[in-house]
Specification:
The chain contains 15 helices and no strands. By secondary structure, the protein is an all-alpha fold. It has one domain. The chain is elongated and about 70 Å long. It starts with a helix and ends in a 9-residue tail after the last helix. About 25% of the residues are buried.
């Protein structure tokens, strides 16, 4: 007896893995897969589609898809970090950054400076200006410690924002692949239309739009909708899935992670108190 698909996915992916790795991969293949089902609807009406999905799950293809999405996302991180000027967590800890007010930043730095073992003293604004790379190294080290401490149920907001960042980063990494396969799907659909309507291009050249639209009508709403989805997907890939889009999620995650300083401090002061983040 085949294991239910939902059970297989739950076994292969935790919450972060589903949102940050599996979902970007599935969104990438969804538009062309929709076109396949539109052109070959019998796949949905037969047991072949369900069988292929079960085989894909059982053979680990969904896990491979999630792993591929993660790999593509990790590969673009160096270029993202270079364009941004550092990790978002490092950037907002800098004295010269404006994402945090100076009192909140100082509270975080004071806590990290006293809590992180063997950490060099945090630089002043003047020291940071003289040696920015050295200052960043201290910030980075503190953030590494904070990431390890911000685990468990008390930091649900950190986990949610981390998954959101991973989702956007991996989707941005898949952007070239997504554009290519959606473009190829549209090209294949166009070729199929021309093949089934040899005079279609002639109608376009003659600007006979009524006859051209009439030639498309027999294709049915499913095929036309699938082509529209693929065209819309290309627009979304180009104009939505951008470096800035990932940066915004990175700042949200960095803000949530640094706010964990207050949660950790409270937990140490009141070890028996519940500090579960909203």
């Amino acid at each position: 007896m085949a294991i239910p698909l939902t059970t297989d996915i739950a076994q292969m992916f935790d919450g972060y893995g589903r949102q940050a790795r599996l979902f970007p991969g599935l969104l990438t293949i969804f538009p062309p897969l929709l076109a396949v089902f539109a052109w070959f609807p019998w796949l949905l009406l037969s047991s072949i589609g369900a069988t292929l999905l079960t085989v894909a799950t059982s053979c680990g293809l969904l896990y491979a898809l999630g792993s591929y999405a993660r790999t593509k996302g990790r590969r673009i991180e160096p270029s993202l970090r270079k364009a941004w000027g550092g990790w978002p967590t490092t950037i907002i800890l800098r004295h010269r950054d404006s994402h945090l007010d100076r009192h909140t930043r100082q509270r975080y730095l004071s806590f990290l400076g006293s809590a992180v073992p063997d950490l060099p003293a945090f630089p002043t604004a003047e020291q940071e200006a003289v040696d920015p790379s050295g200052a960043d190294a201290v910030y980075d080290s503190a953030v590494v410690w904070l990431k390890e401490m911000a685990r468990g149920k008390d930091f649900s907001m950190v986990h949610r924002e981390n998954a959101q960042y991973g989702f956007r980063r991996n989707l941005r990494g898949l952007k070239p692949v997504g554009i290519i396969i959606c473009g190829l799907t549209l090209a294949a659909s166009a070729c199929a239309i021309v093949y089934s309507n040899p005079g279609f291009f002639n109608l376009l050249q003659k600007h006979d739009w009524r006859m051209a639209i009439g030639a498309l009508v027999p294709l049915g709403p499913a095929v036309l909708s699938a082509m529209a989805v693929n065209a819309a997907a290309i627009i979304i890939w180009v104009f939505v899935v951008t470096r800035q889009w990932v940066w915004e999620a990175g700042v949200q995650y960095a803000t949530a992670l640094l706010s964990a300083c207050d949660t950790i401090r409270l937990r140490r002061m009141l070890p028996n108190a519940s500090t579960t983040a909203a």
